[in-house]
Amino acid sequence: MWKIANRVWLLVCLLVFISVGAIWILVESQGTVFAQDTDRFVTKRVFERVLTLQERQPLYMKGAVLTQIGELAADQPVVIIGEDEVYYELRLGNMPAFIRKGEAPVEKKKLLTVVHPERFAAVRTLQKTAVYETADLRSGVILELEEGYRYPIVREEEDWYILTIGERPGYIAKQTVAMDVGLPVLVYHQVLPLELMSTMNSTISLESFEQQMEYLADRQFKTLTALQLYDYLEGRLVVPNKAVLITFDDGLLSTKEFAYPILKQYGFTALQHIISSRTDRVQGTQLFDAEGPLQFFTAADLEALADVFEFEAHTYELHALNGDSGVGVALERSKEEILLDLQRNMVQVPGAVSVAYPFGHYDEDFIAAAKEAGLLIGFTTNEGYANRKNSNYEVCRYGVTEKKSFKQFVAYVEGQHDMAMEEGEGS
């Protein structure tokens, strides 16, 4: 009996041991699955060319000139993707960035890297800003960002924003930066001296336009091109906090007469969206007449004004409304018909990167046609900012006419669109 009882006791102990072991394995397994699910944003990977600086070094982006956008820390490995005689190339987000060559080892190494980075948003630096190895202020600093720029981020986690630098995740404490609402994009049509204005619809006075451009110049705003806007939206360009895109729709002669000299005076550039079926209405020299029918750029004007205006698409002959429905005629066309019209439009503006939808009317067929035509941006008339949260083919702008106050204009370009709208409601 004693032997039987002893064997039963041993059997019970064995079953308890097996059960506890099974529970432990299950807990460990669940913990591993949970960890993998949490950490699947990052993984470790071997890279063939990893640079580890021996001292801090400036990080540049290339444009017309080299611009310093940060400073890489010593003893922080980063992956390089190219080089020339003077610089190593790495990536900040999707943007190429450069550091000068020096006495630093390049070797094969395993690093923590981001898996499937998202198109998320951007942040604005208000002072020099540290980028940490992990979500911990006590961890090492990989990079220090420059003050006054917008940097692309791929994710947020609790109190941190994450960007990628040299294929590594870098963590920015939220309290040290401001979320970037997006780039201000202004749209104008007609510009006339106040004494010649007969309506405020789609028209701004020369006096107001000059006041606005003077404000941008005094605050040292930089005007961007359509391609720079595209690169910003794709995370391939760091742009200044003080940046703006100036656009004009329709190619009206008044903008040559009155806007062009002011833009040139301040060293600004602007997009001019051309309705190409209207550029051949007049041959030879065209004298401006504010009291007559609307006048448009000629082909000769496009050539003469290219130092300030970047000419973009606005359709060939789809800039019209259906008289019965009040809807843009493009919405009554098939994708193939819109594509043919855009291709005809782009014969005259072959460098076009963007299209401004006539009257702001567009649909899925219009977007599909724009993509097939090779255009990268679609401008709407919806008021707001150009940012990474919206489609590149639904970019918002801010319509500027004499109805908008100078205070509204300032609020918008300074990133306070809600305040600009409130001012408008109260005026």
UniProtKB/TrEMBL annotation:
<feature type="domain" description="NodB homology">
    <location>
        <begin position="242"/>
        <end position="427"/>
    </location>
</feature>
<dbReference type="Pfam" id="PF01522">
    <property type="entry name" value="Polysacc_deac_1"/>
</dbReference>
<dbReference type="InterPro" id="IPR002509">
    <property type="entry name" value="NODB_dom"/>
</dbReference>
<protein>
    <submittedName>
        <fullName>Polysaccharide deacetylase family protein</fullName>
    </submittedName>
</protein>
<keyword id="KW-0732">Signal</keyword>
<dbReference type="InterPro" id="IPR011330">
    <property type="entry name" value="Glyco_hydro/deAcase_b/a-brl"/>
</dbReference>
<dbReference type="InterPro" id="IPR051398">
    <property type="entry name" value="Polysacch_Deacetylase"/>
</dbReference>
